[in-house]
Each structure stands twice: as structure tokens, then as C-alpha cells.
Amino acid sequence: MSRRRALNLGLLSIFALLLTVAMPQSANAYTANTWGSVAANSSYCIRGTAGIDHVVPGVWSSNQAWVYSYVYMGDCQTPLMSNQIRVKLQVQKTVGSSWVTLSSTNWMYGYMNKNGDLGFNGPSAYAEYGGAQWGAGWYRTLGSIEVYRMDVVCLPGTSCKWWGGTISSGNEWVE
Q: Which end of the chain is more exposed for a tag (fewer CB within 10 A), N or C?
């Protein structure tokens, strides 16, 4: 092989590698943030899992978003069984430099339950979001998880009883 041809082949290989790394790739599975910290103080510890998937031909997949909730006492180990929990899910897509909510569930209410040998879990929310019907781009699930605080007194007309935060699945490229 001539020196010039070897140089061209080397440059093309580097270009192909850079193109592969620089271009967004469709995932073969899903993107999820598992057991993430949502909010914590001395009384409550809220954890969650948020995920998003999209259909990829030839791979088990679906256009689904989900969020699971886990609420514990302040030690983050003792399940909080008596307080009501609510979960809400949003599917978002980047438009320009900001996230836009494409769909959202209503609040789902429930309590922590023992789930056989799998441990404890609270209410969850699921949504089919249609994949790339809003066009190619970065998508994510944003889950809101809140616990009803029975240890506070609120002023009339305020909603200080619900306390928590959000968890994001991480970004998934969808085409």
C-alpha cells in the first residue's frame, strides 16, 4: 500500500470515529435514573426512579415513560408507611435551549407498600408518549414525588403539607 493511500485511509478512519462519537445515537434500550435522591431532611427521605424508552426496530422496546417512588423516614432506611405520597410524570423534549412538556399525568396517590421480596415501594406513574411524533431530539421523563407531611401546621389557604422534589430520567435521543 502506498504511503499516500495509507495516510488517506488513516484520515478517513479518524473522521469516521469522530463522526460516530459526535453524532447523537439512538439507544438500544432505555435511559433511567434509578434510586435517585429527590429530597431529604431530618424527617423524610424521598427517592425515585425515572425512565424513558422509545421503539428501536429489532430490540425489545416501547415508547414509554415511567416514575417510581420510595419514601422513608429521615434515616433513608425505615419505610414511611403512614403518610400519603403523590407522583406525577411529565414527558419533555428540548426545543432550542429549553425543555418543553409534551404530556403529563395527573397526580397518582398512594402509600408505601411491601412488594413481596422486592422490598417497599410507593405509587408509580406510566405514560405512552408516542416516540418521535414531536420530531427527533432529546427526550426525558421528569417525575415529581411528594409526601404529605403530618408534622407541620400550615397557614389557612397554603399548601405547605406537600413536600418533595423532582427526578429526571436523563436524556434519550429519539429519531
A: N
